[in-house]
Each structure stands twice: as structure tokens, then as C-alpha cells.
Design goal:
343 residues; 8 helices; 8-stranded mixed β-sheet; 16 strands; globular; FAD/NAD(P)-binding domain; alpha/beta; 31% helix; 34% strand; single chain
């Protein structure tokens, strides 16, 4: 069997791409190296832009089954490098990421996409007219497609083989805790003070959990900054941690001036964080969903699978998304000395 496209990664990027192509009548295979629902559940605050994209691309509202309490947020409170609080009011939806990802994948399957979890894409070989992707599930085997969309994140195997280099990473550490704190649970809190995190620190509430996180480029310093952040929250907001029930670590792209994007090469398009799409304060969901859809839309538009036209169309599709990302990082650069290089 030859698929029109193999989608690598079943996060919001991959599911958005898979649903778009399947809805348009293409033969699609989406693979995910982890078992669904994924173990990672992270903060997952859906801004209004993300909700609108879901309505536009998935033709329905986000279900109550993915939401957690407090369901409806009021926005974000940003504490800049100097300790000044800046409040940004906007409606948000508080959700569990693993449930959200599973729902999106199910929507892609309902549209006609074939889906295999616990299946890793380990390599590929591009040929004239098609591409062979080696997959590893319970056994190792290969599938053939006309094109691939790599949505496998900043450390993804396919992405690495396409780009041929390692991108700079930001390392993330997050904990889920039982306890109390003197903060309004309806807001997401982000902290940019350099003594609390190299990149940023944050706090929010999901159901009965207090969630604390820190991010930085030096993995060896993450635990130190996390300890500093917790001590700050104890002194500043009377945080009391009774029990830490869960810890998570992952990586995201380190954004540099100009917000360069890796669009892909040959018969492989790259989308989402794997391509470098990430908005400030780690808001990657809207750009993930939009870039995945736009990669699939480029395939649908080109139709004849002409590689040069495909890449040109994809770049044109995401031009405004990249501009939006640049404006957002420029804004955060104007508010923070730490990110002043992004102005």
C-alpha cells in the first residue's frame, strides 16, 4: 500500500494535519511512538485563538471531557524581570493535555485517517516519486508514502534526519502537587525574574493540583532554579506543598531573533515545534494546530505532489503565522530584559 502521506506524531500538530488530509479524501497514516493517551499531561491552557482554530479546522467545540477546574480562566499575570506584575485579561480554557491530544487524534481517525500508536518512525529513504519510512512497533517494518509531515517535536528522529543538525533546546521541569497557595486560581502566572529561571517559571491550578514549572537552556541547573522558585512562592504567596504526586520533563525549541523556521526538505514537511513554531510563555498549541493544518493544506492544494511547489505553498501558507510569532516575541522582548534580544 502507498499512502498519500504519513504523519509522524499524534500531538495537536499531527492530528490537525491528519484530519485535514483525511477529510479531503487523502489516504493518511498517522503514527505516534507513545501509547495514547500519552503520559504527559502538562499545563495546557487554551487561549481564545486556539479554541477558534479548533472550531474552524475540526468543525466542533472542544468537549467538556478534556476540561479541568477552574474550567474558564481570566488570562495571565506576568511578573517581569524587575518583579513588576503585568495583567493580561483574556478568556482561556483549562484542559488536560493528554485528554486533549487523545480527542484530537480521535477526530483525525473519524475523518478517515489510519492511526497506530506505540509506533516510532526511526528513519526514511526518499526515492523518485515516493518515500519509504521505517517504523518500529512490536516489530520493525516499512511503509511507503508520497509525502511525510514530521510533527515529532524538537527531538524527533525524522526531524533530525531532515535537518541534519541539533537545534538548541529549552529544558522544562514541572511538578503536580497537593497543597494550598494564596493566588487566584483563575489566572495563569508566569515569572521572568532571572534568579527564578533561566527562561521562565510558571504556576497554575488544575483540578486539585498546584502546578509549578521552570524552564532553561542548562539542564544541570533546572533543579536549582526549581528550588529557588518554590522558595519564592512560599515566601511571596504562602505556598504549602503537602505532597508532590507527579514530575515531568521535556524539551521545547529555543527561539532566536528572526524566529527561523525549518520547513522541511524534499518529500518531508516539518510542522509545529519540530519546525520551530512556538509563541512566548511556551504557548505552542495554537501554532501547532495551525502549522499542521497549513502543511496538510499545501499538500491538498498542490495535488500533483510537485516538491518545489509543495514547499513554496507551505511557506506561503504559514507566512502570517510566522509573522504573528515574530510580533509576539518582539512584544515579550519589550517587556523583559531577559528577552530584549528578541525586540
Amino acid at each position: 500500500m502507498t499512502y498519500d502521506a504519513i504523519i509522524v506524531g499524534a500531538g495537536p500538530t499531527g492530528s490537525s494535519a491528519a484530519r485535514k488530509l483525511a477529510s479531503d479524501g487523502f489516504k493518511v497514516l498517522m503514527v505516534e511512538q507513545f501509547k495514547m493517551p500519552k503520559r504527559r499531561i502538562d499545563t495546557c491552557i487554551l487561549i481564545k485563538k486556539t479554541e477558534n482554530l479548533i472550531k474552524t479546522y475540526f468543525k466542533e467545540d472542544i468537549p467538556e471531557s478534556v476540561a479541568c477546574l477552574p474550567r474558564n480562566g481570566k488570562g495571565m499575570i506576568l511578573t517581569n524581570d524587575d518583579g513588576q506584575e503585568l495583567k493580561y485579561e483574556q478568556p482561556t480554557l483549562n484542559a488536560w493535555r493528554n485528554s486533549f491530544d487523545l480527542w484530537l487524534a480521535e477526530k483525525a481517525v473519524e475523518a478517515g485517517a489510519e492511526f497506530r500508536d506505540e509506533t516510532a518512525a526511526v528513519s526514511y529513504e526518499e526515492r523518485t516519486g515516493d518515500i519509504i519510512v521505517k517504523l518500529r512497533g512490536k516489530t520493525e517494518y516499512a511503509e511507503k508514502a508520497k509525502l511525510v509531515i514530521a510533527c515529532d517535536g524538537i527531538t524527533g528522529t525524522i526531524r533530525k534526519k531532515v535537518i541534519g543538525k541539533h537545534s538548541d533546546h529549552v529544558f522544562v521541569y514541572e511538578t503536580f502537587n497537593k497543597g494550598t497557595i494564596d493566588l487566584d486560581p483563575d489566572y495563569f502566572y508566569s515569572y521572568l525574574q532571572p534568579d527564578l529561571a533561566e527562561h521562565s517559571a510558571w504556576f497554575n491550578v488544575k483540578d486539585d493540583y498546584l502546578i509549578f514549572g521552570v524552564a532553561g537552556k542548562n539542564m544541570g541547573k533546572i533543579d536549582h532554579y526549581y528550588s529557588e522558585f518554590i522558595n519564592y512562592m512560599k515566601l511571596k504567596h504562602n505556598a504549602l506543598i503537602e505532597e508532590t504526586e507527579r514530575q515531568e520533563r521535556w524539551t521545547m525549541p529555543a527561539i532566536v531573533p528572526g524566529c527561523p523556521i525549518d520547513y522541511g526538505k524534499g518529500r518531508v514537511l516539518i510542522a509545529g515545534e519540530a519546525a520551530g513554531f512556538l509563541n512566548p510563555i511556551s504557548e505552542g498549541l495554537s501554532s501547532a494546530i495551525e502549522s499542521g493544518y497549513m502543511a496538510a493544506d499545501a499538500i491538498a492544494k498542490v495535488g500533483n505532489f510537485d516538491v518545489q511547489s509543495l514547499h513554496t505553498t507551505y511557506k506561503n501558507n504559514v507566512a502570517e503565522l510566522k509573522n504573528y510569532m515574530e510580533r509576539q516575541w518582539s512584544l515579550i522582548g519589550s517587556k523583559s530584559k531577559k528577552f530584549a534580544y528578541m525586540k
